[in-house]
Amino acid sequence: MNSWDAGLAGLLVGTMGVSLLSNALVLLCLLHSADIRRQAPALFTLNLTCGNLLCTVVNMPLTLAGVVAQRQPAGDRLCRLAAFLDTFLAANSMLSMAALSIDRWVAVVFPLSYRAKMRLRDAALMVAYTWLHALAFPAAAVVLSWLGFHQLYASCTLCSRRPDERLRFAVFTGAFHALSFLLSFVVLCCTYFKVLKVARFHCKRIDVITMQTLVLLVDIHPSVRERCLEEQKRRRQRATRKISTFIGTFLVCFAPYVITRLLELSSAVPISSHWGVLSKCLAYSKAASDPFVYSLLRHQYRESCKDILSRVLHRRPLRSSGLTGDSHSQNILPVSE
């Protein structure tokens, strides 16, 4: 094993450790806080977190073994099962992020009717659709025998070894990524850009009120005036920064792998095995970043973590209700945190 392989193996080990700990902490927060569980986004977060954990304990270790051994790390049946999970979990993860973006769009654009439009039943139906959508392609791949060990990615995933099936496999691969990666990316862009438009509109209204107040308060200290203007600037940047994080992490983690899979279909483009494994590691890194992007940095989850830590340190009893008094908008609106 050369230095490249050792570095990729270390990257996989680090990703596995962060993903396992962070996703387990999200599950603990969901179990601890009844307030979080009562909200519709909790179902999307639960679906995403369970998928990330399954990927961490099944697919990542097999890929690590493939990188170290430079060959198929398990028997054919186990590898086909891992390939099925790899395909399903990748699509489910992307569609879950799209579902979360739709939830935020409804919460920001229709705040007064959010509870009527996004009930737990509606969230459960959306999760059921993501499962059916994500299961369709690996199920078809099982029938067509397109699951197995792919040496380029050192992973058990979608692959076809028969030259006469090259065209059909290319069409299948293109359709899979179009209806998972591209569809989710379009939904993310449409929903978050509308959220950003509303957020900027509210920021402008607040800015007008702030400026009018500063004009009226002629005796206000210059330092207070500067702090108000600085807060205006931070407020305008906050929503943009958060939405850029949602879309940016999606692209950085998934786009290299998807583009590599599509380029792989063309024999005219040589692809290094090191780049193939690195692109797969980037896709896996989404499982490690999701808990921070969608959960742990939000107010309710931070408070739940504090309660859990206090329980561990025996400072005060654990509260099954988790949080009290925090509005749902505080955890959905990107401009409120």
Draw up the topology in text.
Blueprint: H1 3-32, H2 34-37, H3 41-69, H4 76-109, H5 114-117, H6 120-143, E1 147-150, E2 155-158, H7 166-216, H8 222-264, H9 273-296, H10 299-312, H11 329-332
Antiparallel strand pairs: 1-2
Q: Summed up, what is this model?
A:
This protein has 337 residues and is mainly alpha-helical.
| Adjacency order of strands in the biggest sheet | 1-2
Number of strands: 2
| pLDDT < 50 runs, ≥5 residues | 320-337
What oligomeric state do these chains adopt?
Answer: single chain
Into which percent range does the helicity of residues fall? over 70%
Helical stretch tally: 11
Can you tell me the overall shape?
globular
What do these coordinates show?
This protein has a two-stranded antiparallel sheet with strand order 1-2. The chain is built from eleven helices and two strands; from the N terminus they run H-H-H-H-H-H-E-E-H-H-H-H-H. A hairpin with a 4-residue loop joins strand 1 and strand 2 (155-158). The longest helix is centred in the middle third of the chain and has 51 residues, at 166-216. It is 77% helix and 2% strand. The chain starts with a helix and ends in a 5-residue tail after the last helix. By secondary structure, the protein is mainly alpha-helical. It is globular and about 75 Å long.
